[in-house]
TrEMBL record:
This is Uncharacterized membrane protein YsdA (DUF1294 family). It comes from Novosphingobium sediminicola. The chain crosses the membrane at residues 21-41, 53-70. It holds the Pfam family DUF1294. One of its GO terms (molecular function) is nucleic acid binding. InterPro entries: Cold_shock_CspA, DUF1294. Keywords: Membrane, Transmembrane, Transmembrane helix.
């Protein structure tokens, strides 16, 4: 969540942004729940494509892996 907050503040201040690849990487290594909550909480990158599609793809893959490991 913190990276989304920081990126939002950087954008508002006209500063250099956190790369989308870094945000997606943090989601891929387990931060998906925080990323999804932060997007809504901070209203940041909610309509950005293909970022949104990639984030949801990461979430679906993680859900599938959890289901696979649990079975």
């Amino acid at each position: 969540m913190q990276l989304f907050w920081m990126d939002k503040r950087y954008a508002e201040a006209g500063r250099r942004r956190i790369p989308e690849a870094s945000l997606l990487l943090m989601a891929a290594v387990g931060g998906t729940p925080g990323a999804l909550v932060a997007r809504q909480m901070f209203r940041h990158k909610t309509r950005k494509q293909p970022f949104s599609a990639y984030l949801w793809l990461i979430a679906l893959v993680q859900i599938g892996l959890i289901g696979w490991f649990a079975s």
